[in-house]
Amino acid sequence: MEFVVACMTCQHCKHEQVAYPRLLQPLAIPDQAWEEISMDFIESLPKSEGRNAILVVVDKLTKFAHFISLTHPFTAQEIAQVFIDTVAKLHGLPKSIVLD
Fold first, then answer.
1. What is the strand order of the sheet 36-42 is part of?
2. Separation CA 74–CA 64 (nearest Å)
3. pTM of the prediction?
């Protein structure tokens, strides 16, 4: 036992003593359109009319999407206002939003 503790090769090659990760669990299928959505950003795009980012908002049931052009850098307050003005105005506020 003392040899294993003192041996640097043994210490570097030991496997971690953690539980094996379980399988991913799928998200539930929503009952109604625009009840659950996912949002993501596409950034570092070439400028087009002064905009260089896109906010992608996707309904998880219908897979319908909104693509909203933005100028980087932006704040959370600006994103919230754009979301209210474009998505929530048309579909109402969702029950849940999934971000990565």
1. 65-70, 53-59, 36-42, 96-99
2. 25
3. 0.71
Integer Cα distance of 59 and 47 in angstroms = 27
Tally of residues, the chain: 100
Residue 14 has a pLDDT of 66
Distant-in-sequence, close-in-space partners of 52: CB < 8 Å, separation ≥ 6: 43, 44, 45, 46, 70, 71, 72
Q: How confident is the model at residue 1 (pLDDT cuts 50, 70, 90)?
A: low
Going from N- to C-terminal start, the domains of the chain cover: 34-100
Residue given tokens 């906010």 in the structure block = 55
Name the DSSP class of 95: S
Q: Which CATH architecture has domain 34-100?
A: 2-Layer Sandwich (3.30)
* Helix residue ranges, H only, the chain: 2-6, 8-13, 76-83, 89-91
